[in-house]
Amino acid sequence: MDDKDALANYYRGATCFLFPHSTSISSAADRSHGFRLSGGCLGHPLTEGTLRDAALYCDPHSVDSIEHTVERLVDDKNLQGKLRTLGFGRAADFTWEKCAHRVLEVIAGAQTKQEQRRERSRSRRAAKVPRAIVRHASDSDIHA
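The chain above was modelled as a monomer; its predicted structure follows.
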């Protein structure tokens, strides 16, 4: 058994997944390996926005908060089942196809903004040219 298989077995046998960190987790990858983890113990807005009600949250800087949250999850089998089900539902929302579409939307938005900036710059330059010509013509009229 290699390290990946061993890790996958540990995840499959775990009662909960404790993740007191600000880095996001790959729920789709976990789901594809068949991990049956219930809930998590998180405390960062990015993970809260991703997992929503599929996890328990705590202050990742507080031992008491982490301890209370883990005890609650370990002691409540109904909560474990509920969070597990919600977690698989949330994981289903994250696919490579959806990610690719979102990346393309961001790129298209950035291109549109860049084109708008170029157009404003062209408009400003075009607006300055006639004034320069008018000034130059009036200067030469004065000196003539």
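The CA atoms of residues 86 and 106 lie 28 Å apart.
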